[in-house]
Structure prediction request, 366 residues.
Amino acid sequence: MSKLSNFLKKKDIEISLNRYLISAMSYMAQGLFCSLLIGTIINTIGTHFHLSFLIKEICKIGSVSYSIGELAMAMSGPAMAVGIGYALKSPPLVLFSLVTVGFSANTLGGAGGPLAVFIITIISCELGKLVSKETKIDILITPIITISTGVFLSYLIAPVLGSLSFKLGNFIMWATELRPFIMGIIVSVTVGIALTLPISSAAICASLGLTGLAGGSAVAGCCAQMIGFAVISFRENKISGLISQGLGTSMLQMPNIIKNPKIWIPPTLASAITGPLSSCIFKLKMNGPAISSGMGACGLVGPLGIYTGWINDISNNLKDKITLNDWIALFSICFILPGLLSYIFYLILKKMSWIKDEDLILNSEL
Prediction:
């Protein structure tokens, strides 16, 4: 066992939840952000502001035409796989080989492609690392093992993983449509908590294809955490803290949550209210990319995803126009209510001495 442990350590293979569910999933989300999400944003900006250079055809592959944004979106599989490989500290030959693995897993995984990419890339990457630099013809062996493993697994299990992911996502969305109050709370609180934890809520939503009312509730939960923490800690962290948490990530509060878990109560309670308000009252839907459902106010990606959905619905004749009520719903759920509700709960808990001022101070490097 010691020889095996030493060999795995030498290959930097760490079989742990931290490495796979936190690090790999987080970098996978960044890859998805830099491809699918950025491509969607580029297309939305080009379409809305009539910037022809952003939406015009710049190349054609077979019968499919691509604009700048569409090229970025098409590379989501490779981008996710490279992100995972980077998180797993892959040697160069393994990392570059994962481009093919990501493309095959995402393509064959269909609607549940991100989940297929996540599982298959990890297996292919670790096997590639095992054989890396073990032979004199490493430049041949490592890519062959990595790519053949990834493509074979893509062919074998990606459609199954994609189907399961798609069905689970559809079940959550169906349940939210059927029971918007209960599911609004469950989805909002769960995804919001995932956003603050060192795991990727964006990757989770993308893997499940979480859109529609469920996607709207997910956005509500994420915004409640980000805007909530930004507001209740403003006295301690000032403008830098407001921006870094409100437009960055509430994950910055994790060290403080570990010290005093009670500081997590205000934004979590806020998410339990904004989730069902989103699904039952405002009927806020995420009809943009599913990854946006798990991004919240980060870079305004969540609200922009909802806006993208409006544009898509209008172009598909599913919606006449963007109304004042739409804007009121968006700003209420994503910004106003999260801050207001979190602050009210914060004052109550502070009165009870459950929370003290110094409990919310971020790292001084911010």
Residues 2-159 form one domain. The chain has two domains: 2-159, 179-360.
